[in-house]
Fold this protein.
Amino acid sequence: MAVERARTSMHLGRLCEELGVSPSTLRKWRKDLEARHESGPVTVQHAGETLEAENRRLKRALAEKVLEVDFLQGALRNIEARRRQNTVSGGKAFTPRSGE
């Protein structure tokens, strides 16, 4: 998926930063993927599953992952907003207590 996103991305540096990988790793993934495509298409299906059923299953799984990402991004925004408020207002930082 990262290689597909890299093909359409306008800023590879930002994409690598978002994915948490180095540009060299992304290039290696692209090279590996191209090598697999050259060796012929790989078709793997779950036992007895038609392509249409597999497509529906994968779309459903993708939708679930999109919801998970949206939830986590929202939670991260909330945490960052609280952290900014505490820093601006001079509030105490959230740090674990030492052995007082």
Summary: The helical segments are 2-8, 12-19, 23-38, 51-89. The first helix runs from residue 2 to 8. The radius of gyration is 21 Å.
